[in-house]
Amino acid sequence: MSKDAAVFSIIRNNNAQNEYWKEAAALFQDVLKKEMDDDSRTSAISALMWLYSWMGDQENAERTALSQSPVRISREVLLADTTIDEKSERYRGEAILGLMHELYKVLRTSVMIKHSLSHSQAGLDALLAVARIYESIFNDGNYGIFHNDMCMLYLHCSSIAVYLNDSELAFNYYETALDHFLKFKQVPRNSKLTAPLVSEAKNYSPSIVLLDREWFEEHMQSFPAECVEAIKNNPKYASIFAQ
User: How distant, in Å, are the alpha carbons of 158, 182, 198 from that of 172?
Assistant: First the structure.
């Protein structure tokens, strides 16, 4: 068992005995038996799955997940495949956004949780492949809220480049991540995507990890001192490190 796996095992064993978490899981189970709108049900299922995961309750996590619809008959895919009226472009756009974001999440986790990938060129290439998909979809540079995904991708690319002893590349990826973060912070509420493939999409709000100064400082820990100084002294990024 790796060091990280051992740490997670200890955490989950402790969480499994947490009476508050047990009660929370029971409440979510009761909520899911009631009538509710799709968004509320999705939120409840996601919260319950995270609870099961952190409690180490793999049996209930799998049971809950297997009770849901597979990707091929998800709402987004079905609407994209079968709608042929004036809404078809909208539904295809929403399917593209949804599938792209979920691919990003699964692949990012798959790379970063496995040492042989998170410290290798193969892992870096996989993350960059996802970034290129995003760049192709948002080919006009307007990523909207998905600037956050790009920021996370390039932060991880930077970390892998450090392990590969390529400080210059790590620095470049890190600055790319910061640039995407700054653009994400400037995205107005209810902003509209404008790239051709997704310009008609309306109803897709991805679940994202909100980044802050601590994230960026953690990813800089392996940088040479001169790189850290160059980033923190750059006026362009002052607002990030002043948070």
Answer: 8, 16, 28
20-76 pLDDT, tens digit each: 778 887 888 888 888 888 778 877 887 888 788 778 888 888 888 777 777 777 878
Look at the block and give the residue holding tokens 């990012």.
Answer: 108
Which DSSP letter does residue 104 get? Answer: H
d(CA 29, CA 103): 27
Separation between Cα atoms, residue 232 and residue 123, nearest integer Å = 28
In this structure, what is the dihedral angle of CA atoms 230, 235, 241, 243, given to the nearest 10 degrees?
180
Structural tokens at position 129: 């492949």
pLDDT digits (tens, 9 = 90+) for 105-133: 999 999 999 999 999 999 999 999 999 99
- Structure-block tokens of residue 158: 């930077």
Q: Whole-angstrom Cα distance, residue 63 to residue 88? A: 33
Rounded to the nearest 10°, the torsion over CA 69, 73, 75, 80 is 170
Q: Of 79, 91, 162, 92, whose CA–CA distance to 120 is shortest?
A: 162
